[in-house]
Amino acid sequence: MLKRDLLLIVGLLLTALLVFVFLRFFVDKGALVQITIAGKSFATVRLDQDAVIPIGRTNTLVIKDGYAFMESADCNDQICVHHRKISRTDESIICLPNKVVVTIVNAKERDVDAFAQ
Questions:
Q1: d(CA 50, CA 65)
Q2: What pairing do the DSSP bridges indicate for beta strands 67-73 and 59-64?
Q3: Is the whole-model pTM more than 0.85?
Q4: Strand pairing partners for 86?
Q5: Which residues are CB-contacts of 104 (< 8 A; sequence separation ≥ 6)?
Q6: Closest Cα to residue 79, out of 59, 63, 62, 64?
Q7: Which segments within 1-117 are labelled E, that is strand?
Q8: For residue 115, what is the DSSP state?
Q9: How far is CA 113 from the centre of its chain?
């Protein structure tokens, strides 16, 4: 039984390592930050240009050094403010009370008519 337990633990550790390597090195870094409020497009901005973006009167999004993060929000729980910085395709920061969704998208997968700043 001990040998099987050891094999199971080693197998799980190898699987975790493979997932980490895949996510770290093979998932595309996003090119654009798409912001929606209540399901309607608010803005699409480039991830490679530093910016501070007021989202309505409720939230403030910061794009810096290729990462996006919510700097402030007027909601009580502040979950979106404490969320880690995002930079990879399909990562999101969501503020449910204010109905704000910030998602990283790849420019190749999305037709962009214009960049909002």
A1: 7
A2: antiparallel
A3: no
A4: 68
A5: 30, 32, 33, 34, 47, 68, 86, 87, 88, 89, 90, 91, 92
A6: 59
A7: 32-37, 40-46, 51-55, 59-64, 67-73, 92-95, 100-105
A8: -
A9: 22
Give the tens place of pLDDT for each residue, 59-98.
999 999 999 999 999 999 999 999 999 998 899 999 999 9
User: How far apart are alpha carbons 55 and 103 in whole angstroms?
Assistant: 14
DSSP summary character for residue 76: S
Neighbours of 26 (CB within 10 A): 7
Evaluate if residue 109 carries a pLDDT over 90. no
**H/E segment holding residue 22:** helix 2-25
> 67, 86 in Cβ contact below 8 A?
yes
Please report, as a single letter, which amino acid is at residue 54: P
Burial zone of 21 (CB within 10 Å; 0-12 exposed, 13-18 middle, 19+ buried): exposed
Structure tokens at 63: 């794009």
Q: Which CATH superfamily is domain 32-109 in?
A: N-utilization substance G protein NusG, insert domain (2.60.320.10)
User: Rounded to an integer, what is the distance from CA 47 to the centroid of its chain?
Assistant: 11
